[in-house]
Amino acid sequence: MPRSAALLPEYDRGTVPEGLVTRRVLRDMGLSPGDNDGPVAILRCRRCATRPNWSCRHPTRGFLLRVDLARPKRVPTLAQELALDRAMAARSTCPTCSRRYYFCLPLRKVGCCDPCAQGYEPTPGTYVPITTPVCHRLAA
Predict the structure, then answer these.
(1) What is the DSSP string of 21-69?
(2) 136 domain residue, yes or no
(3) Separation of alpha carbons 137 and 139, rounded Å
(4) pTM of this prediction?
(5) 137 in a domain, yes or no?
(6) Would you say residue 134 lies in a domain?
(7) Which domain of life is it from (predicted)?
(8) From first to last of its 140 residues, what are the pLDDT tens digits of the chain?
């Protein structure tokens, strides 16, 4: 929480002035915070605002940023996307059977995929089949 959060104005969900949004809404708009030095206001959960000791399943507040100071998201270069793909391949490829799974493997704890550790054949939908041709899937 920012140091000056106690001094920021608070709004309920329906009373937020136009031009103020949360980081998640900025992301959905394809924007990054940009020149926003910090939150301008606080968005309060109605239920938690009226009953502060009552526990909510969702956060009790969200920080609001100005849309006019936001900038477009930066687009990663092809080299950055290739580096990310290699890093994810290292986390999702089993060193024992060389299968690349669609999820990250517990390599630090187990050291291999669950089928190799337990001794059974994996479900075909959980890993990338070897018969598929290698194709370029990067966005740039």
Answers:
(1) E-HHHHHHTTEE-TT--S-SEEEEPHHHHH-TTSPPSS-SEEEEEESTT
(2) no
(3) 7
(4) 0.55
(5) no
(6) no
(7) Bacteria
(8) 555 666 888 887 778 889 999 889 999 999 999 888 888 888 887 555 455 555 555 557 788 999 999 999 999 999 999 999 999 999 999 999 989 999 999 999 999 999 999 999 988 888 888 665 556 566 65
